[in-house]
């Protein structure tokens, strides 16, 4: 499945992570330690005696982040992490669907001309992820999460033994265990910087720096003085992303070439992410995780949109790999320079986490068609019709979301995020060098 260059990139990631973490968990401790969590590194999966993790997926890596004794989590990001900010920021979006459609039409008119152009836009409605079937696996229905249920960020909070992080825009919420600042569609670059590259930001202007301004304003609103605040962040986890996916998405759908993106955007985006890291560290952050990107062009919405065209999936795979490699380089530099020896910045290997999910989904017999879609019967559609996507009237979720990887073509199901989280909590735990003891 993975090409040898992908494999060597993965080896490089693992190697980089070991460098960052001083390899103190190269050998997972034995499982005989009483009530300690069962560690599943996923690394021995493909050994002949493997399949340990698959068989034990429900019991492995449970409560691992609890050992890190985190008291707060601050999450930044886009639709992968948004738990209800965009729907509060933009309660009605007449153009939510249509803007995606028209961007596709502008650039890929040859594919979608007859499908989307000329369709009525309709009256103002709440964004699709504020309506069922989004959130169908929550007792109270939709929350603004772009899935049927919980996201990665929720699984991290649960694993750390903390309440789920409330969205920053939820007035009067209890932020004592952290805040989620992520906004679906958010970009790493501010909208002005994107505009200077002739790229518009159609969903939100609440980019990474805006989210940091919110955090700063929030910290300053607290009664404590600055020193006490910093001390309070000693055991806080800062999840800075993933970021960049929306920038690349907008650029690609607005006609930028991969070459242009790699040369002009990637360095700017990595710089923006690293200055965000410096900013949170200057505010007192000690534990920072910087997730990389997974290969969005392996997701159904891109496979369907670009079906029959140039080999967009491979190309985007390269873009994610390129972005991640630059990010890892910047993280290593940051840690080596030890500008802040008390702060540790760990690379979050979402690329491998997604690959682990793909591997798992094959072995577990999960369905690759989207759960919430209305596609035709052709294999390449993955049950996805770009004119009638999840959230459109009459498009319902599937009977068993647990059996699907993809929720709506781009965003994953709760089950998929659960599996990725199983992989990631182990990597975060080892990266932060949390003690394997209570
Ligand atoms: C994924 O979710 C975001 C909102 O959270 C939405 O903007 C995007 O359209 C979704 N993707 C698809 C293919 O529906
Ligand atoms: C910006 O995009 C518009 C239309 O997409 C194009 O006409 C214009 O030449 C572009 N400008 C630059 C500086 O690339
Ligand atoms: C972002 O800000 C610009 C300038 O104020 C505005 O024209 C644009 O509509 C905003 N975009 C969104 C999605 O709010
Ligand atoms: C996924 O499976 C391939 C073999 O098919 C293996 O080489 C790769 O390491 C696996 N990836 C992960 C993250 O487990």
**Which outline best applies?**
globular
Based on helices, strands and strand pairing, what is the structural class? Answer: mainly alpha
CATH fold naming: Rossmann fold
Q: What is the CATH domain class?
A: Alpha Beta
Mean pLDDT: 81
Query: H/E order of the elements?
Result: HHEHHHEHHHEHHEHHEHH
Taking the sheet with the most strands, its summary is: 5 strands, parallel
Q: Count of helical segments?
A: 14
Number of strands: 5
Spatial strand sequence of the major β-sheet: 2-1-3-4-5
Helix share bin: 40-55%
Question: From the 3D coordinates, which CATH architecture would you assign?
Answer: 3-Layer(aba) Sandwich
CATH-defined superfamily:
SGNH hydrolase
Rg calculated over all Cα atoms: 21 Å
Bound molecules: 2-acetamido-2-deoxy-beta-D-glucopyranose
For the terminal residues, how far apart are their CA atoms?
Answer: 39 Å
Low-confidence stretches: 1-32, 93-124
Q: Roughly what fraction of the amino acids lie in strands?
A: 5-15%
Taken together, the total number of domains comes to 1
Q: Please, could you describe this protein's structure?
A:
Residues 1-32 and 93-124 have low confidence and may be disordered. The chain is 41% helix and 5% strand. It has helices at residues 4-21, 52-55, 86-89, 96-116, 152-159, 191-196, 208-221, 226-232, 245-253, 258-282, 300-305, 312-337, 350-363, 414-431; strands spanning 72-76, 178-180, 236-240, 287-291, 344-348. The relative contact order is 0.16. Strands 2-1-3-4-5 form a five-stranded parallel β-sheet, sandwiched between helices. The protein has a single domain (4-431), classed as SGNH hydrolase (Rossmann fold), CATH 3.40.50.1110. α10 packs parallel to α12 (312-337) and α13 packs across α14 (414-431). It has 438 residues and is mainly α. The chain binds 2-acetamido-2-deoxy-beta-D-glucopyranose (4 copies). Residues 1-2, 42, 45-46, 352, 355-356, 359 line the site of one 2-acetamido-2-deoxy-beta-D-glucopyranose (NAG).
